[in-house]
């Protein structure tokens, strides 16, 4: 607003302060939005730097690291049993949570009547998603480890993780099913197909990319979880590569153990472990992104 | 399917009714799968309650019930931890040899300390970031900024713990605090607050931004037409109009902070401490559970049962937060067509 004409009606209004306040507010918002990004960058830089120092200055041998088990001596300490443990955990979590999650989502979206009970089940799902992960570990400890006397084995850990991620799989699958337009269902039903034939032959295939994407994201969550595994009694110092019914360790529990040790060499081992974990996570997110973009077609 | 045709259609009818039968069976199987989610909730509560009973008394609830029935009478319940001690004692030292004490206020206060501190980080920053994304940022900026912020939520919490110990405390906090003549240890509540705050920023920002986006443009345009500045529109129109969604995001972030485990265990430490001093080492409820579970306690011992007692309190706290969140969303939702 120009104020150069002296006798202007608005000449006595000074907008300098308003403009300054405006600018200040804008700057505050930008810095707040950038704060998270800066922190993320610092976090990644910190991990990279600690890893670099570990490898270059302290002399951690990456070959030994990826090929051997935990050791009291940092020079011989390795990550392999933790990696194997995490792979097993993810596979079993996938088996336990995928079918359960998809079946539940299918029932809720395709069969369930719009009743009070259905609403309660859905409210319960939101609630389960908000239960702290450590409580799922406690549940697995009480029911699977000590109740069914499975012991502190890998399967028990995978069950805890599966219960933890099932709500995520369900919600993602529900969204994928909801995105399938009703016309597709009606077309199939009109040919005389039963409801299940419609779902199996038409609806589920159309929703599959969305379901797969959601499941990969849920598994990415599972692979980074530490607390439930510690609760079911994962060994922190994984020396031997576990099978499904063995005592087990995983990548995050190993990282926890190393971060906690007072000897600083172990912190660099932890950083290297975190780097591997983050790379695997980036791979999983990338895969989810790829599936979403490549296969998600507007039906 | 009509049934008025005679004999010839018998075969197809059998197939059709077989299909129908299978349809019903599948429906039942799917219902069974759905009921597992309900069962999980019941199991969580049952397991926590059963063992918490065993923490206060000598036998778990299920043991007590079964023996009472067998003996056809009430067994005297010996109480090993009194409710008064649990809820009011200022000491939490479960593994003390002579005089173990179980006063949960120590752990609850630490949890609240961390949660409040984290809220002071995530709520202002998250809300401002949401306002920026929804009101100021261009489409391109938003397209890249929002997913980048959401990556923060995908980073495993153990990594935040490592970040706290290896960067936040020694590089960020210690030099700044030394200027003020304060010293800070390797483990301190402040580092826990900072990292939990950072990891809950995307939760606040993302959900708040969705709420702000659903505010119709008519409201904004009306304000602009009255000569309001962008600042006025953001702060006095958009924010109040989306307040229910924004508030729900706060509660979700708080609920997440209460249940957060690995970052606070690494950052804030494992020393129970009844204090409001953010520079002290404290032990939250979750940190106690994790550190205590590491030392494999005998099943049925007080230490073992104390995990469940703490877990029950934690579960009830997050449940309350989630219910409040649900209520706010339902009760105060502005519906814009």
From TrEMBL, chain A:
Give UniProt keywords alphabetically: Cell membrane, Membrane, Transmembrane, Transmembrane helix, Transport
The chain positions of domain ABC transmembrane type-1 read 83-287
Q: Does the keyword Signal apply?
A: no
Compartment annotation:
Cell membrane
Looking up Gene3D superfamilies in the UniProt record yields: MetI-like (1.10.3720.10)
GO CC terms, sorted: plasma membrane
The membrane spanning regions, by residue number, are 23-45, 52-70, 82-108, 128-147, 153-172, 202-223, 266-291
Which Pfam families does the entry mention? BPD_transp_1 (PF00528)
Entry keyword annotation includes Transport: yes
| SUPFAM superfamilies on file | MetI-like (SSF161098)
> What is the membrane topology listed in the Swiss-Prot or TrEMBL record?
Multi-pass membrane protein
The source's superkingdom equals Archaea
Positions the record marks as coiled coil are none
Q: Tell me its family.
A: Belongs to the binding-protein-dependent transport system permease family. CysTW subfamily.
NCBIfam families in the record: 3a0107s02c (TIGR00974)
Protein name as annotated: Phosphate transport system permease protein PstA
Gene name of this polypeptide: pstA
Automatic annotation (TrEMBL), chain B:
* Family annotation (Pfam families): BPD_transp_1
Record's bilayer topology term: Multi-pass membrane protein
The alphabetized UniProt keywords are: Cell membrane, Membrane, Phosphate transport, Transmembrane, Transmembrane helix, Transport
Q: Reply yes or no: does the keyword Iron apply.
A: no
Location relative to the cell: Cell membrane; Membrane
Cite the InterPro entries for this sequence.
MetI-like (IPR000515), MetI-like_sf (IPR035906), Phosphate_PstC (IPR011864)
Q: Where is the ABC transmembrane type-1 domain positioned along the sequence?
A: 108-325
Q: Which GO terms describe its biological process?
A: phosphate ion transport
Entry's SUPFAM superfamilies? Answer: MetI-like
Q: Provide GO CC annotations from the record.
A: plasma membrane
Transmembrane spans:
29-49, 107-131, 151-169, 189-212, 233-253, 304-324
Q: Which domain of life is it from?
A: Archaea
* Job of this protein: Part of the binding-protein-dependent transport system for phosphate; probably responsible for the translocation of the substrate across the membrane.
Question: Would you identify the family this protein belongs to, as annotated?
Answer: Belongs to the binding-protein-dependent transport system permease family. CysTW subfamily.
List the protein's name. Phosphate transport system permease protein
* The encoding gene: pstC
